[in-house]
Write a sequence for this structure.
């Protein structure tokens, strides 16, 4: 994809989310707002090529969406009670348009609605991708390995719930803000990790919708005030994304230790470091800040030759104290092994309940590396086999197979 | 729920592989079957011979393989037990065939349900 195309896509994404957030906060009906906006975009595709794009495309789209809302309000009047909200939204659109100032950016409210506790966890991320970024259900379904029709249905159901349950379209008050923001950030993180195999366990995970996730993370960090974790998440995703060009070269997965740093995106790393520094000023450590700090330490080791292994181990211990996830424990075990403490790493892995890792690829990859380091070849071979069997990605399978074969030749 | 994974890929492509590449591919499938078994979801699985050794039988007669309906031919199957379709799709995506050809996922019809 060309840069120009990416810029155009981001611009469309900016407007889409801003317009939909604005319409939704007034209609209180995501689906109605989406319909109106979709009509406006269709009309734009029809008219703009003939008449040229208007001076203010967003105002044009909003006017057109407003007309559609009035239609909907008329039709809805006889059926249900959403008519007053729709009519009011149309009126407010008039007011916003007569005003010369830009209409307010209310996408943060939209993020909070999507990650509301009343919305099922599995649909929060898809809902964000659709409402804030305008992604279609088929694209979202494919990233999350869900049948397209099923995904479309889940999205429709979630939007109906927002409307019928009257989930408020507002940023939560100070008492729930932090907890609710955590839900928002978790959902953004899930977009980043969709369908990703951690072939060596030492690198940050990333998958299908990385650009979209980074867009949302920047948005959350930019709009949520006093939210160190939002900056932490942005830093984490930027660090991981910066290494993407070095991670798979000619179809081959390259472990972090062997990556060519010339291929890293230095501007993204600088942005990540800035976001992380900003997060630390709040002196309120959280899961994402610590994960970002771990990635920052990995980057420092590679870029400046600093020995950060013991820092990384300490950071993982803090991470496990804060959020004892399996992913954190597997990462910790990998960090111990990298610091010549493979036995200790294995003890950490052995303490995890087997049922919880039966299908967790990263666990088996790290376990295999550790067993290989301990020269327990047969067990390592079995663990490699399971990691290969659980991989979705051809490059990950190939990487693990090479590691496994190297082990048997290096006697 | 039982799900049948029908594996479609380029069977001529398979024959063109070197013996080392074949060993790798077989290894990947064995690893996958192993992962399914260890997770307790595997019911059965078999690879199929080339479609040139297959026959299609209709009342009108018998047709010899290979069948001229596309490059990707049925090359094997996995039958698994999964809680729901999402779970089944998650497993299907890990099948090596998903990267080379495609995996058709079919719920097994439940007479009692």
């Amino acid at each position: 994809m060309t840069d120009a195309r990416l810029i155009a896509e981001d611009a469309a994404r900016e407007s889409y989310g801003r317009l939909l957030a604005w319409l939704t906060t007034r209609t209180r009906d995501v689906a109605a707002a989406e319909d109106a906006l979709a009509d406006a975009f269709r009309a734009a595709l029809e008219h703009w090529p003939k008449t040229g794009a208007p001076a203010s495309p967003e105002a044009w789209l909003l006017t057109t969406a407003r007309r559609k809302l009035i239609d909907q309000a008329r039709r809805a009047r006889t059926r249900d009670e959403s008519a007053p909200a729709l009519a009011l939204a149309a009126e407010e659109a008039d007011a916003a348009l007569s005003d010369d100032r830009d209409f307010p950016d209310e996408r943060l409210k939209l993020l909070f609605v999507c990650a509301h506790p009343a919305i099922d966890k599995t649909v929060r991320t898809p809902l964000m991708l659709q409402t804030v970024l305008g992604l279609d259900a088929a694209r979202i379904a494919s990233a999350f390995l869900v049948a397209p029709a099923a995904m479309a249905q889940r999205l429709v159901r979630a939007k109906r719930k927002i409307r019928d349950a009257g989930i408020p379209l507002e940023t939560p008050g100070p008492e729930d803000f932090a907890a609710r923001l955590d839900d928002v950030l978790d959902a953004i993180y899930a977009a980043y990790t969709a369908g990703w195999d951690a072939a060596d366990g030492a690198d940050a995970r990333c998958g299908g919708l990385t650009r979209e996730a980074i867009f949302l993370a920047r948005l959350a960090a930019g709009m949520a005030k006093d939210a160190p974790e939002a900056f932490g998440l942005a830093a984490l995703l930027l660090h991981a994304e910066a290494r993407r060009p070095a991670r798979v070269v000619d179809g081959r997965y390259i472990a972090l230790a062997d990556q060519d740093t010339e291929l890293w995106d230095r501007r993204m790393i600088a942005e990540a470091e800035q976001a992380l520094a900003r997060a630390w000023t709040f002196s309120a450590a959280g899961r994402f800040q610590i994960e970002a700090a771990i990635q920052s330490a990995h980057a420092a080791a590679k870029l400046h030759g600093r020995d950060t292994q013991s820092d990384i181990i300490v950071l993982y211990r803090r991470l496990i104290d804060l959020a004892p996830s399996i992913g954190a424990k597997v990462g910790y075990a990998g960090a111990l092994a990298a610091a010549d403490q493979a036995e200790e790493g294995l003890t950490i892995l052995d303490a995890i309940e087997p049922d919880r890792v039966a299908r967790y690829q990263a666990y088996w990859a790290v376990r295999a590396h550790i067993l290989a380091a301990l020269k327990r070849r047969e067990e390592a071979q079995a663990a490699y086999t399971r990691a290969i069997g659980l991989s979705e990605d051809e490059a990950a399978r190939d990487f693990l197979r090479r590691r496994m074969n190297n082990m048997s030749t290096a006697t | 729920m039982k799900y049948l994974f029908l594996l479609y890929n380029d069977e001529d492509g398979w024959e063109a592989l070197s013996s080392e590449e074949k060993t790798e591919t077989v290894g990947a499938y064995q690893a996958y079957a192993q992962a399914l078994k260890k997770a307790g979801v595997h019911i059965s699985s078999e690879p199929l011979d080339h479609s040139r050794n297959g026959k299609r039988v209709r009342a009108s007669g018998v047709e010899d393989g290979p069948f001229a309906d596309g490059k990707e031919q049925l090359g094997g199957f996995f039958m698994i037990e999964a809680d729901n379709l999402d779970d089944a799709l998650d497993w299907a995506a890990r099948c090596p065939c998903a990267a080379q050809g495609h995996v058709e996922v079919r719920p097994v019809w439940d007479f009692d349900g």
Q: What stands out?
A: Residues 3-27 of chain A form the longest helix (25 residues).
